[in-house]
Specification:
The complex is a heterodimer of chains A (323) and B (290). With 323 residues, chain A is mainly alpha-helical. Chain A has one domain: Orthogonal Bundle (ABC transporter involved in vitamin B12 uptake, BtuC), CATH 1.10.3470. In chain A, 76% of the residues lie in helices and 1% in strands. Chain A contains 15 helices and 2 strands. Chain A has a two-stranded antiparallel ribbon with strand order 1-2. In chain A, helix 2 runs antiparallel to helix 9, helix 2 packs across helix 11 and helix 3 runs antiparallel to helix 4. The longest helix of chain A has 27 residues. Chain B has 290 residues and is mainly alpha-helical. Chain B is 75% helix and 3% strand. Chain B has 11 helices and 2 strands; from the N terminus they run H-H-H-H-E-E-H-H-H-H-H-H-H. Chain B has a two-stranded antiparallel sheet. The longest helix of chain B has 32 residues. Chain B is globular, with a radius of gyration of 19 Å. The termini of chain B are far apart. Classes of the chains: A mainly alpha (323), B mainly alpha (290). At the A-B interface, helix 5, helix 11 and helix 13 of A face helix 3, helix 4, helix 9 and helix 11 of B.
């Protein structure tokens, strides 16, 4: 039983998240929940590299977009079943992670330089995806509507919610297991002091590349789920800066380098965001685009400045249990 | 193949665009050279400055060049205040934090402009907007020629300021050795904020030089920010001559790759240069060896 204790809190959180679509039955609410879970999953990917490994990426769109485009292209252009396309798409996300990681970490890019180079890679992907015929160019790519669980499309939103939650849950358990094992310890050592980690015999380059590869796979999975949920992609959706920002905001606001951080951050941010949008809309009688993002920016600055451990750091009891 | 005239025009156009890029990069590299921070909000600040020019033209009928009387001191003050009151206190001097705080600022500025002006693309009409001057067989856009001279003037003034004035000396002292500068009585926090203000003021000038021939929407800064980063990295982080030459070079690269590969793919050349320089020689072509 004691071997399972570290995982009990995760299972409890997953159970609560699993009940949500039964409690909230409106379509808007359920779509919001699925979107938030996808953001949380992308955030888990970012958190593994950024939170545990201390390498802040500004270009996780590279992985999200690769996963999303791969699953869409494989089924639309090559007629592959999306369930078969899924592992390939995740593998491609991992490959993109490994390539970017190998190039950037071999060149010893750290801190701001690493952030900038990841951003530049994402922009290159975006521009290429915007002109290539195989991605549908600027018009984008539409996944044909064919509602069938065998086809990775569900009539029931709750089913898609649980599927997304399955991915998120699996990743959370994996991250917890890594965190408790050697790899997690090495990764944190690299974050805290690269030179000291190297002196202790940690193969810093290998640890970093492994982290970005896994991070790429996780965020690519989020991209796959996004593609299957919304059934439409263009370069701005798949490789746009918005998802790079979402993927880093959720863990930073929630709690950097913790299993629960990305989930808590995604729900708090999007919860507040939706409430503000609704409140402003009723106040002014019209939607005010971007107002939720202004709030996200303010929260990011406040968090970095005054609560570096995010919301989890502000909750001492939870913090102890999560640690 | 293209005729020599077309190639020459493309090169000249690239140089003219590149000079404005150089000015934008100048602000970025100045801030990097002194504060050793990458200001991610640089592009969004440029957008804000362009909207300021747009509003002053629309509401007060100010010519974009005249608007500099308002926008240059305005942006200087804004930059000073943001560094002193937000970036400094919130980042605790940590590199990763500064990046995130300036990213937060960029998100705030961009989306506040989006909420205010919506996503429409706007431009202003000035009588000289389409004026050209003839040089031999070539026609050069007057506002863009003005921009080239404007940039040269700003670069000269900035150089004089840094080389001759007391504040300029203090800025250079802080850039070289901040602890030593503090020991001899220089207020480092003040100098940081002044430098940040100067970086923002460069953007105010760039905005006025751009507006007669350019358009503005809340996301336009993104198009410039990565270009400016590329120039700064290429020219060597913190190097002012590097920023000027890098800006002109990138302007020409963009213009020529646009000519040969089409508008949408043209920008790829810039990003590839950016990635290659970062991977191979992150100190840039003019920067000191690490």
């Amino acid at each position: 039983m004691s071997a399972l204790r570290p995982y009990a809190a995760i299972l409890a959180v997953l159970a609560v998240l699993a009940v949500l679509p039964v409690v909230f039955t409106s379509g808007t609410m359920q779509n919001f929940l699925i979107f938030t879970l996808i953001v949380a999953l992308a955030g888990q990917g970012w958190n593994l590299l950024g939170g545990y490994g201390g390498q802040f990426s500004f270009g996780h769109a590279s992985f999200f977009g690769t996963g999303a485009y791969a699953i869409a292209i494989l089924q639309e252009r090559l007629g592959l079943n999306p369930w078969l396309a899924l592992p390939i798409a995740i593998g491609l996300g991992a490959l993109v992670g490994a390539v970017i990681g190998t190039l950037a970490f071999r060149a010893r890019l750290r801190g701001s330089y690493f952030a900038l180079v990841t951003l530049a890679f994402a922009e290159v992907f975006r521009i290429v995806a915007n002109v290539l015929p195989v991605t549908g160019g600027a018009a984008g790519i539409l996944i044909r509507l064919n509602v069938d669980p065998l086809n990775f499309q569900f009539a029931d939103r709750a089913a898609f919610h649980w599927l997304t939650l399955l991915f998120l849950g699996a990743v959370m358990l994996l991250v917890r297991a890594l965190e408790r094992g050697r790899f997690g310890a090495r990764l944190v050592a690299v974050r805290e002091n690269e030179d000291a980690a190297r002196a202790l015999g940690v193969d810093v380059l290998r640890v970093k590349i492994a982290a970005i590869t896994l991070s790429g796979a996780i965020t690519a999975a989020a991209g796959c789920l996004y593609a299957q949920k919304f059934l439409y992609l263009d370069a701005m959706i798949a490789y746009g800066p918005w998802i790079s920002v979402e993927a880093l905001l959720a863990p930073i606001i929630g709690g950097l380098g913790t299993v629960f951080g990305p989930v808590l951050g995604a729900f708090v941010l999007h919860g507040i965001g939706e409430l503000t949008k609704t409140w402003i809309a009723t106040l002014t009688g019209g939607a005010l685009p971007g107002v939720d993002l202004v709030l996200f920016g303010v929260l990011l600055i406040i968090t970095v400045g005054f609560a570096p451990r995010g919301i989890l750091g502000l909750l001492p009891r939870l913090r102890v249990r999560a640690a | 193949m293209y005729s020599p005239e077309i190639l020459l025009t493309a090169v000249l156009n690239g140089l003219m665009t590149g000079s404005v890029y150089a000015l934008i990069a100048l602000g970025l590299t100045l801030v990097y050279g002194v504060l050793h921070i990458i200001n991610f909000a640089h592009g969004a600040t440029l957008t804000a400055a362009m909207f300021a020019v747009y509003v002053l033209h629309g509401a007060a009928g100010l010519d974009p060049y005249v608007a500099m009387i308002v926008t240059v001191p305005g942006l200087f003050a804004l930059g000073y205040a943001v560094q002193r009151l937000v970036i400094g206190p919130a980042s605790h001097g940590d590199d990763g934090n500064i990046l995130l705080v300036t990213l937060g600022l960029a998100i705030i500025i961009e989306n506040a402009l989006l909420a205010w002006f919506r996503s429409d693309t706007r431009s202003i009409d000035v009588p000289y907007g389409f004026s050209v001057i003839e040089v031999g067989t070539l026609f050069l856009s007057l506002p863009r020629v003005i921009a080239v001279f404007g940039v040269l003037l700003v670069a000269l003034l900035l150089w004089l300021f840094l080389a001759r004035s007391t504040t300029g000396q203090a800025i250079r002292a802080v850039a070289k050795e901040k602890t030593g500068a503090a020991l001899v009585g220089i207020d480092v926090g003040h100098i940081y904020a002044v430098t940040f203000g100067l970086g923002a003021a460069c953007l105010a000038v760039a905005a006025s030089l751009l507006m007669p021939t350019f358009l503005v929407n809340p996301r336009i800064g993104n198009a410039f920010v990565l270009v400016a980063f590329t120039i700064v990295v290429l020219g060597g982080m913190g190097s002012i001559p590097g920023a000027l030459l890098g800006g002109l070079f990138i302007g020409v690269v963009e213009s020529l790759s646009g000519l040969f590969m089409g508008e949408s793919l043209g920008q790829i050349g810039i990003f590839l240069i950016f990635i290659l320089v970062l991977l191979i020689r992150p100190t840039g072509l003019f920067g000191a060896k690490a």
